[in-house]
Amino acid sequence: MAYALLGFLVLLVIVQAVVVWKASADWRWYQVTPVVILMLLAVVFAYPTAGALKSRQAWHKVKEDLEERVERVRAEQLELKYGDPNNPLATDGALPLAKQLAILSVEAGRRWRGLQLGQADFSGTPSITLSSPPRGGVEGLPEDNDADAPTLPLIPKDLVVYGFGERPQPGVDIPMPVFYLGEFRVTQSTPNQVTLTPTGPLLPAQVQAISQRQASSWSVYELLPLDRHEAFIAEGSTPDDNNLFGRMDEQLIRRLMGTGLPPEELARYLEDGRRSQPDDPPLTRWVKVQFTKNHSIVVDSPDQRDALSGGFFDGSGRAVDSRLQTGNGGEVTFKRDQELIVKEEAANVLLDEGVARLIDTYYLRPLNDYRFVLRRIRLRIAELRQRQTELNFEQEVLQRAIDATVSMLTSGQTEKLKLEQDLAQFEIERLALAKYNASVKADVNATKTRLVRLYRDNQSLAGQLEQIHQSITTGTGSLTATSLNAASPQ
């Protein structure tokens, strides 16, 4: 390419020289000189111009590459910020994750992680001492300067908190709470140490975990975390028309709930979000509706107070905690064709007002309020302990009755054996008596037969004697008459 350009320039110079030579007869020196200088300058600046054009072409290519990279970076930034709407399997963006984190922060309140268990005294009034986590132990962060150490208490005094034992979990860089240790009140607090006292009797498992230092690292929460449907969704599962949240992770539920989870309770978690069935309880029926016109609902309560003073919502379900209130007049406006999932009674109100239409009905398990669940469990355990004491007493009484019954059965068994022996002897004697009675009866019958025969013989002999007697009497009478006749005088 360079040789072609050089040849073109040589040819151009020759052509220019021929033109100047042909025109020299008519031109003056001041006309020929600019043409020659212009030609020389054109030849001299041809190579710098070509280099400039080549450089411009390279920089233009760099510009196009940078513009493509900027577009890709902008697309990646948007995807990182908002997520990929075209890929349902992709993770959420920074803003949705920040919103979820804000919701979790509101639900959990203040929390203190990595507290180290110091002393645990359960003699008399129980007290537990926790120390602040080691400073400067986070990789990538500079070590803390003691001069900048905080002077405020580690945890505000008299605050009611909830303790959890921490343990490392696979795939997580920091220890996670895995075991509930109870409800405590802060009795003493310094910048580096805090003393906790249980608000009620701890369970034996909790006392064992603390006293035997099985929970050496603690997480302390100002509020108990709220139950969530999304916490048990299997990784990679997405919502669809048949399941509102997606497939539930059975292995995760079994691992978190323990091996003693009843089958009916497991079914409640696994079926969370499915389409509703006619036999589902009313409290579990939620309805997806679509607004047919713009509609506004008041969600902020006129009363404002802290969540610790009575919860996040008032009796009508409106937010009283300023962190949950929307502002803007306390109303939330729903646009036409916007979808919403509400409880069945709320959906019936919207349907009756004619501002929405029914899409589908789903089964949603009632969420647990752990503040009341744990207290109810504790009261239930205390009741069961009292019931256990009563049952132990009843068992002792029953055992004594069983022992007495066994003793009576033993003595009765002895008497039974004796009676059985007497019965056997009596049976032998009865058989002997029956045999003897049979022989006696046989002798009696033989005797009766012989007596009857003798009686009949005696009757025959008596008849014979009677005949003989009559014959003798008759003969005697005739002899007497003959004798009388012979003795009478004639």
Brief sketch in words of this structure:
The chain has helices at residues 2-23, 29-44, 46-82, 94-108, 204-211, 250-257, 263-270, 344-353, 370-487; strands at residues 111-121, 127-131, 160-167, 176-189, 193-198, 217-221, 285-291, 295-298, 331-334, 339-343, 356-363. The chain has 490 residues and is α+β, with helices and mostly antiparallel strands.
Report on the structure:
The chain is α+β, with helices and mostly antiparallel strands. It has 9 helices and 11 strands. The longest helix is centred in the C-terminal third of the chain and has 118 residues, at 370-487. The protein has helices spanning 2-23, 29-44, 46-82, 94-108, 204-211, 250-257, 263-270, 344-353, 370-487; strands at residues 111-121, 127-131, 160-167, 176-189, 193-198, 217-221, 285-291, 295-298, 331-334, 339-343, 356-363. The strands form 3 sheets. Strands 1-2-5-4-3-6 form a 6-stranded antiparallel beta barrel. The chain has a 3-stranded antiparallel sheet with strand order 10-7-11, covered by helices on one side. A two-stranded antiparallel sheet has the order 8-9. The relative contact order is 0.05. A hairpin with a 5-residue loop joins strand 1 (111-121) and strand 2. Residues 137-141 have low confidence and may be disordered. It starts with a helix and ends with a helix. Helix 1 (2-23) packs antiparallel against helix 2 (29-44).
